[in-house]
Amino acid sequence: MKKSKWLWAAAVLLPLMPIAVVRNSRSVRQFPQRAGHAIHGFDREQSVALFVGVPRFTHDKSLAPVRDAADDGVDLASAVALDPNAVNLVPPKRVTIALSGLPHKQSSKDRLNALKAAGARVVMEASQSDLLMLLRDQAVLAGRMDSSSLP
Q1: Cα 115 vs. chain centroid, distance in angstroms?
Q2: Which residues contact 61 (CB under 8 A, 6 or more apart)?
Q3: Hey, is 19 helix, strand or coil?
Q4: Which of 8, 54, 78, 80 sits in a 20 to 30 Å window from 89, CA-based?
């Protein structure tokens, strides 16, 4: 797996793991759970996700293009929502994928088709304002049990 995909996976999964940062230490450790302070059960049916595969943002010239952005966004969405050997954090019907351009790899194209067939929302030619709107939509949807209730 590419280094960038591991970084994205870490960015998505790390907030889910309770951790404690130890002073004068360069590592993190899993937060010890005390009796009475257990983390409540995770309900994937209340989770939402927004995956972005936009290789170039035209309003900020300081950002370098990301060559395989569409492939990476689709592949990560597939790993989180469809992969039976992964964590399955979010149901496909509660996934939104914002792309600007299509994936290049055939495997990514196949994953995109599988995500669409499973109910994922795909927005093509996504702009910066689209991303803000989609993020708002997903934030509103978070915690709702039925994705059809989105305003």
Answers
A1: 13
A2: none
A3: strand
A4: 54
